Amino acid sequence: MTDSPLTHFDSTGQAHMVDVGAKTETARIARAAGSIFMQPETLALIRAGSASKGDVLGIARIAAIQAAKRTGELIPLCHPIALTRVAAEFTIDEAATAVHCEVTAECFGRTGVEMEALTAASIGLLTIYDMCKAVDRGMRIDNLRLIEKKGGKSGHWQGN
Amino acid sequence: MTDSPLTHFDSTGQAHMVDVGAKTETARIARAAGSIFMQPETLALIRAGSASKGDVLGIARIAAIQAAKRTGELIPLCHPIALTRVAAEFTIDEAATAVHCEVTAECFGRTGVEMEALTAASIGLLTIYDMCKAVDRGMRIDNLRLIEKKGGKSGHWQGN
Amino acid sequence: MTDSPLTHFDSTGQAHMVDVGAKTETARIARAAGSIFMQPETLALIRAGSASKGDVLGIARIAAIQAAKRTGELIPLCHPIALTRVAAEFTIDEAATAVHCEVTAECFGRTGVEMEALTAASIGLLTIYDMCKAVDRGMRIDNLRLIEKKGGKSGHWQGN
Amino acid sequence: MTDSPLTHFDSTGQAHMVDVGAKTETARIARAAGSIFMQPETLALIRAGSASKGDVLGIARIAAIQAAKRTGELIPLCHPIALTRVAAEFTIDEAATAVHCEVTAECFGRTGVEMEALTAASIGLLTIYDMCKAVDRGMRIDNLRLIEKKGGKSGHWQGN
Amino acid sequence: MTDSPLTHFDSTGQAHMVDVGAKTETARIARAAGSIFMQPETLALIRAGSASKGDVLGIARIAAIQAAKRTGELIPLCHPIALTRVAAEFTIDEAATAVHCEVTAECFGRTGVEMEALTAASIGLLTIYDMCKAVDRGMRIDNLRLIEKKGGKSGHWQGN
Amino acid sequence: MTDSPLTHFDSTGQAHMVDVGAKTETARIARAAGSIFMQPETLALIRAGSASKGDVLGIARIAAIQAAKRTGELIPLCHPIALTRVAAEFTIDEAATAVHCEVTAECFGRTGVEMEALTAASIGLLTIYDMCKAVDRGMRIDNLRLIEKKGGKSGHWQGN
């Protein structure tokens, strides 16, 4: 029987947390991004809060960073990872009436941190949804994706 | 000073977990949905696994259900909620080369379960990403949104 | 298609957290028990510690109680439950060179607390293993089982 | 043998999570407070950040609220509690070169929320320590205490 | 005063998380096993589900892997460990009307992973109990034990 | 724009988990301490329990050790850390009618363990509060502080 190209399954199709013990420790970076689209009035409230009070994006940033640390608990086959850096950046896009989020995660370890960056971006955007849902239930999270990955055997990868 | 329409902030702009103690307990339902888009070859691997071995969608379903229970830990201002039901359905869409996910969450309580449904869908889709990323790093999660909400003072709401 | 007698699956075989929203809240009790068997010398160390210093059983008791509260995170399809009481009792059995553990869990709610009692007993016994493994790696946990259950539609059940 | 006045122990001295199943559900409120003392220069940095950027107190507030929800995991014999409200207020005290924190926690349930308020205040103050420790390792947390408690059999209690 | 042979206690009998800072990092493996015994009809339902729908063992496998990652939270004096591999195998035993579980855990670190393997096996078996308890409350978990350990100062150990 | 001396903020004032990837791994130790003050009668109950039954301090010690392991989840910008040792010592002070707590935390890593020691001491003292609050609601936690720190670029630091 040939192995599945899906490495989280062994040759009999059973899921496992794959063996990374033989991999060398290298510096690893992943960047992920996503967006939340909303009504112009909602975006105006977020912008107003960021400047003075009711800081939606400041709270979303903390939620994103904390979620990165819990990725191994949330994604069943992820390895626990000792992150060395997490940063989350939110940008208000008036034209698109959206907030864009970009998260960078880093570690020095045996496996990549793509899931940490993606999970952080996802929870950051959901936190914006939570805080604004009383005024805009129809917000939509879109285009959550990996945009860059460095380190490890597979080297440098860039999306868009 | 007038209150912010963003109820998670008090009149001075400080974040709080809003008081729901005076709300009546009612049956509450929320449905959320989202999609992950991928290469046709990746979708073929998922379909093959679901039928026989390497069950990506079965594992994503468990991750979604477990994430619903942890929502209060992930989203800073969410209340802890005693969920009475969570179900997650995944549909393979050949035409769009995507997997669609729909989650229903229910409770009998003082506040809604929208965030539980959205968080579950998000983590379910990220679990698919995790299991297929070795063959397709460019997958994209899109259109994560609330599609229905019942119960509580605000009544019935439907998106699309 | 007929439904599975395994209620955690819907009629198409998909796992879900079953709907308990329509159940009435009743007082519920579950008792679970299990044992760990060991060398007589190991049991003597545990007995000595309980009397004066190095209180293995006191620490196992706390681990059991704390694990009961985390059951919903550990067992994928368990509901989150607001436990109203947990007690864990350990008994030294010289004849069998074993420690027996019995846990009682209670709640006032819509679903039973069997898994909470069983998980607590299991983690309590594993904590004994952890603390004594430096002197006795061959310890064995046996006979972990539900011994009683009250409340809810299914009424009173007793095992042995 | 007479029972210990410490209710977390049974008559043989074994710890347990005490039975609250027979208590009636009432509205319960607890307020706790504490302070962190520091160098005037450190306080000036916190004040500057609160006004414009580097919002130490905004992050401490989120940490406090999230900690309140995890109290049952941290304090071994605490019951899990469905909090209905948490608010954390920080006050800058120039004269004392300190930040004071006051947390209010509420639930509608069978047991009090003192530990939730105290744990939240404690983690909020520790978060201030964490964010300022690079410039002031000698900060000191003082006077962490319960200041008010309402609801339940013991009625209204006020400290100072 | 002589030290206790129970290394989790200091010379005065106080529990601590023992110092492993001076140990060298080596590859470490632990294998643990256990069984759950049940009615023949229950085993038939599990077997049927594994082949087509209602995959009890697939869900138990995920629960086991996730529990391995939480061991440090559950067992009070365990060190947090960066696992590099976890695999859980379930075998249906018609003659014994039982399901056997074997878990392998690995890390590259300063302390062993016995507790991770044992905790994973335990939670995997409890998940089977949870999913089948509606049809068979009398199931029994037996013979949970360490079967092999490699790495570290104590070298290779095998049980049976 | 000059950087803030508060390193948890970047030059635009956004919070992040600071990059420690380039730091060398060294042995790190932190010691923290704090006290809880109470009525003489309460202290007498704690002393009685420590000697025979109702071991408040034994339970507080376990709570402290477990909290040290969860620090990264509680303090938003803390790095996850693989602790190699945690010890918590409680001293009864008759003259001050107080219990003093001192925690030592150690790791071999890229960042310090001050927050782990402080969080452990804080939760240990709160656990004493929890177990004695039925007899003494006015207990007060005071003087929680770092007392020593070794390892890393900043070298040896001692408080008092």
UniProtKB/TrEMBL annotation, chains A, B, C, D, E, F:
<comment type="subunit">
    <text>Homohexamer; trimer of dimers.</text>
</comment>
<dbReference type="InterPro" id="IPR036522">
    <property type="entry name" value="MoaC_sf"/>
</dbReference>
<keyword id="KW-0456">Lyase</keyword>
<dbReference type="GO" id="GO:0061799">
    <property type="term" value="F:cyclic pyranopterin monophosphate synthase activity"/>
</dbReference>
<dbReference type="InterPro" id="IPR050105">
    <property type="entry name" value="MoCo_biosynth_MoaA/MoaC"/>
</dbReference>
<dbReference type="GO" id="GO:0006777">
    <property type="term" value="P:Mo-molybdopterin cofactor biosynthetic process"/>
</dbReference>
<dbReference type="InterPro" id="IPR002820">
    <property type="entry name" value="Mopterin_CF_biosynth-C_dom"/>
</dbReference>
<feature type="active site">
    <location>
        <position position="130"/>
    </location>
</feature>
<feature type="domain" description="Molybdopterin cofactor biosynthesis C (MoaC)">
    <location>
        <begin position="17"/>
        <end position="152"/>
    </location>
</feature>
<protein>
    <recommendedName>
        <fullName>Cyclic pyranopterin monophosphate synthase</fullName>
        <ecNumber>4.6.1.17</ecNumber>
    </recommendedName>
</protein>
<comment type="function">
    <text>Catalyzes the conversion of (8S)-3',8-cyclo-7,8-dihydroguanosine 5'-triphosphate to cyclic pyranopterin monophosphate (cPMP).</text>
</comment>
<feature type="binding site">
    <location>
        <begin position="115"/>
        <end position="116"/>
    </location>
    <ligand>
        <name>substrate</name>
    </ligand>
</feature>
<comment type="similarity">
    <text>Belongs to the MoaC family.</text>
</comment>
<feature type="binding site">
    <location>
        <begin position="77"/>
        <end position="79"/>
    </location>
    <ligand>
        <name>substrate</name>
    </ligand>
</feature>
<dbReference type="InterPro" id="IPR023045">
    <property type="entry name" value="MoaC"/>
</dbReference>
<comment type="pathway">
    <text>Cofactor biosynthesis; molybdopterin biosynthesis.</text>
</comment>
<dbReference type="Pfam" id="PF01967">
    <property type="entry name" value="MoaC"/>
</dbReference>
<keyword id="KW-0501">Molybdenum cofactor biosynthesis</keyword>
<dbReference type="InterPro" id="IPR047594">
    <property type="entry name" value="MoaC_bact/euk"/>
</dbReference>
